[in-house]
Amino acid sequence: MDHAMASAKLITPEVVRHTPWPMLGFVHELTVENRKLRLEIEALQAKLNQNSANSNKPPSSDSPFKPRAKKTNKTEPRKKRIGVRQQCLRPTEITELHPGPCACGCPDLIDPEPYYIHQHIEIPEPRLDVEHIILYQGRCSVSAQ
Questions:
Q1: Rounded CA separation 141/36 (Å)
Q2: Where in the sequence does UniProt note compositional bias of the Basic residues kind (predicted)?
Q3: Distance of alpha carbon 13 from its chain centroid, rounded?
Q4: Once rounded to an integer, what is the mean pLDDT over residues 81-93?
Q5: Which one of 27, 52, 64, 120 is CB 3.0 to 4.6 Å from 59, fit for a cystine?
Q6: How far apart (Å, rounded) are the C-alpha atoms in residues 42 and 120?
Q7: Residue 8: its pLDDT value, please?
């Protein structure tokens, strides 16, 4: 419901009869000013929401911090995307996590079976192969005499 309509319901003929005329004039001025400010706010919000897709602004004027609206082709039905699961690698270690007792306190499970496998892949620190190459120098024993 509009704010003006809600306040109009509060101003009954009885209220008007008991309100001094200067106060009614003041309320009228405030109502007119309120209406003008609301229209100004709507215009400013419309300007704020403009971008290159809905105005004649160049794309370079779009904010880099707001995600761009995705273009959709209305004539073609949307294709459902199907995700691709990563293939599980051969594990080097297996950790099995079994549920604890149920709400009644019974610790025994009937036919337990895995329902989810999560792989944690740790990239090992690279092993360094350090090779020392030593260059020797010396003098000829024949020509040194």
A1: 106
A2: 67-83
A3: 52
A4: 79
A5: 52
A6: 52
A7: 59
Q: What is the 3-state secondary structure (H, E, C) of the chain?
A: CCHHHHHHHHCCHHHHHHCCHHHHHHHHHHHHHHHHHHHHHHHHHHHHCCCCCCCCCCHHHCCCCCCCCCCCCCCCCCCCCCCCCCCCCCCCCCCCCCCCCCCCCCCCCCCCCCCCCCCCCCCCCCCCCCCCCCCCCCCCCCCCC
Q: Which of 37, 59, 41, 39 lies closest to 50, judged by CA?
A: 59
Rounded distance, CA 28 to CA 104, Å?
A: 69
Backbone angles phi, psi at 106, to 5 degrees: -75, 125
Name the pLDDT band for 37 (thresholds 50, 70, 90): very high
Cβ atoms of 39 and 45 within 8 Å: the answer is no
Residue-level pLDDT at 130:
87
Token representation of residue 78 = 């949307």
pLDDT number for residue 34: 94
